[in-house]
Amino acid sequence: MSDEPDGKPVPSGRLSRVIGLGSLAGRIAGNMVTSGAGQLLKGQRPAMADLLLTPANITRIADKLATMRGAAMKVGQLISMDGGDFLPEELSAILARLREDASPMPKVQLTEVLSNALGENWQDNMLYFSFAPVAAASIGQVHKAITPDGTMLALKVQYPGVRESIDSDVDNVATLVRMSGLIPKTLDITPVLEEAKQQLKQEADYLREAYMLDTYRSRLQDDDAFIVPRSYPSLCTENVLAMTFEKGDDIESVLQLEQDLRNGVMSALMRLFFREVFDFKLIQSDPNLANYRYDPVSGKIILLDFGATREITPAMTEGYRSLLRAAANNDADAMLSAALSIGLVTSEHTTQQQTKVVELGMTACEAIHVDGSYDFGNSDLIMRLHNMGTALTYREDFWHVPPADALFIHRKLGGLFLLARRLKVQMNLRQIASPWIQ
Fold first, then answer.
1. What was the pLDDT predicted at 121?
2. DSSP conformation class of 277
3. Angle at 237 between CA 232 and CA 238, to 5 degrees
4. From CA 435, how far away is CA 438, in angstroms rounded?
5. Beta carbons of 277 and 320 less than 8 angstroms apart
């Protein structure tokens, strides 16, 4: 058994978590008053968002969310927008902390969680258990273990109180976001918040994740590009997920490989995305880079973390198949029809707004238009899409929240595009997508 990890206890009670965010809001409000008064004395009229989004306040928010873990940290991660391409440099640097490993639980708290989940004598079922986690994220932390029969396992242990605090955590963090002025007051994000709560509750159900893990393992058994861990049912509970330990390197280590090998890795991930949407009708919707590892020995990609797996309705699948075909054929009318069926735009939007949405969609699919390799490493596509989206929102007054399934599909695809750019990949996306364009 290894040494006790150096960590901070996770606030497990609803009251303690509400008080935690409440005291944070109080300190931030005090800082805002002080800073605002200083600016007024100088003859300046400070904006509310400028007062809130100071480096000191953002640091406090990041520190508090990282300590609380759970849904509070998860929502903070979403705010940080993987890749940091669209936020101010200072804000991106501070919020990047929420994409790093969280502080682990102290040994006493960890032991209590494991005893409640697996019984007081849980260590009797293990030849070895490392109390020092190999990873600590927003909802749980991962430990190495070896069973008496010699099987090496990864045990994901959920932080106490996470599941019970999801609703209040999401609501409280959403209040902080609204205070920041990052979203307009006129935009109703209630449906998205409710969907986020349901998604997080599913992620906090480790028995469901074990099922999804085995489902993906079964569906990818014919694909030599991937390694998917196998669940270890006798040690799986709602709060503990046991799976085979798969050794691999950080996915960004692929950057050290030759161009054709990098291209092959990313092509496999894009092909998997299309299989998820069109064949499996099931998508692992979290594009966090930590969910991918690379085995340099076999050259295979290790897939991890299936808590955010979502089922996709047949209607949504067909809508995106039509959208893909429209993009491949550069057919604006067909793309508008597909966008209407998906819910990316509605018949109540003006013709101008609909046209701009189609233009944005065609731009997003420009790699499909290229009959050959598309150079993701040197592409400014993501920034162009950001500029087009901003113009659509503010110039065309287009405030619209698409269906949750569409949001999660776009989030996954956006994460893959960011990864392709980081890995400086060149690939023929049209060829990869061809089985579903036909």
1. 93
2. I
3. 135
4. 6
5. yes
Collect all residues with Cβ–Cβ distance below 8 Å to 110 and sequence separation of at least 6: 5, 104, 131, 141, 157
State how far the alpha carbon of 403 is from the alpha carbons of 76, 82, 340, 410, in Å: 21, 21, 11, 11
The alpha carbon of 210 is separated from its chain's Cα centroid by a whole number of angstroms, namely: 19
How open is the CA angle 84-86-89, to the nearest 5 degrees?
Answer: 60
Does the annotation count 286 as an active-site position? yes
Phi, psi dihedrals of residue 294, rounded to the nearest 5°: -125, 125
Is this structure's pTM higher than 0.85?
no
Residue spans of alpha helices (H) in 160-258: 166-180, 190-203, 206-219
Query: Which residues partner with 241 through β-bridges?
Result: 156
End-to-end CA distance of the chain: 56
Strands 292-295 and 300-303: antiparallel
Which amino acid appears at position 147 of this protein?
A: T
Q: And the tokens for 354?
A: 């609909």
Pairing of strands 226-227, 300-303: parallel
Name the residue with tokens 């697996």.
Answer: 118
Q: Which helix (H) or strand (E) holds 265?
A: helix 259-274
Residue 153 · residue 243 · CB < 8 Å: yes
What pLDDT score was predicted for residue 26?
Answer: 44
Contacts of 18 by beta carbon, 8 Å cutoff, 6+ apart: 168, 172
Question: What dihedral angle (degrees, nearest 10) is formed by the CA atoms of 381, 383, 387, 392?
Answer: 60
Catalytic choice (82, 205, 286, 405): 286
The residue ranges of the chain whose pLDDT is under 70 are: 1-103, 173, 176-189
Place of tokens 């690379």: 294
Q: What is the rounded distance in angstroms from the CA atom of residue 172 to the CA atom of residue 28?
A: 14
Between the CA of residue 50 and those of 22, 36, 45, 187, what are the distances in Å?
21, 9, 10, 20
The token pair at 68 is: 């609380």
